[in-house]
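Design review, sub-item: ligand-bound model
Attendees: FS, YL, KQ
YL presented the inputs for the NDP complex:
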Amino acid sequence: MDTSTTLPTMEYRRLGKSGVQVSALSLGSWLTFGSQIGDDVAEELMRTSYEAGINFFDNAEAYAHGRSETVMGNLLAKFNWDRTTYLVSSKVYWGGDKPNQLGLSRKHVIEACHAALKRLQVEYLDFYFCHRPDKHTPIEETVWAMNTLVQQGKVLYWGMSEWSAQQITEAYSIARQYNLIPPTMEQPQYHLFHRERVEQEYKRLYSTIGLGTTIWSPLASGVLTGKYSSGAQADTRLARKGLEWLKNNLLTEENIKKTELLKPLADELGATLPQLAIAWCLKNPDVSTVILGASKVAQLKENIASLNILPKLTSEVIQRIEDIVQNKPAEPEY
Ligand code: NDP
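KQ shared the predicted structure:
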């Protein structure tokens, strides 16, 4: 069997300590839906995902100023899949430029949810994330707003994205104090070049509050595919106008070097570089789901087949990866 192309059997994981099961791989829409790709490609990406057993589709009010949700909503309506067979998310924070279109006030959290439900054409969001912490709104106000949406049946599970462990703990404690529904999950960045938060900062939260994780950018926006070895290529994310900040952040000599060193190991395992990088994320038991991004159906198929590589990541292989990346965070002290 050619493990690098054969579509695998999907694995499902609990989202932290909650009862809901999410596919180990999921599909995201940042920069692609409603922007970089046509709606026909978005349709093929969603269909291919669903047929491969992916049950979670990630979105946000900020993505393409709402167009990403509109495209996904039109497709969900067209597919008409059984609503019990998929999970769809939105995230609130960046709704617009006006004062009450930004952040995590009760007003914006509730209004953004209503707008996302409309665009996505669903009656409830399975997952609703606070896209970033909001230093201008008391966490207590946001926790109450999320609880209201859960009580109204408009949101099933709520969480945050890129909050510190301390902010998550505060939200959790407030929810416990007032008998409200606490947050279930975080959406952090996690890949071979970016590890501290998931492996160190949040470590204690997995066992204490049962935090789930829906991790983003498993390929460091494509750097871990190896396609940037000779600089930013045309028709790729890091060559796009307006994304210079992302390119400056990720396309470093060090990251390119490490990616080149990982290539022979991937070859040895019969995997491609993206498959090795995604399988490495999946290997972490504290990761509930790895959100994939893809601008082409062939990329998505290649990435889904990373599940085939997972059994090949023995402790010896993991150690060889550690020797290459040399960035393993220290064990938390407590
Ligand atoms: P990745 O790091 O995996 O980057 C995906 C991009 O890499 C693709 O769009 C494509 O870009 C390129 N790529 C993917 N697979 C391959 C392949 N096999 N070969 C060559 N190139 C490939 O993930 P994303 O950064 O897209 O993040 C995934 C999802 O996570 C997002 O869609 C979003 O839902 C979520 N997210 C959440 C954030 C948050 O703040 N909560 C922030 C960012 C993302 P191209 O072809 O254009 O080069």
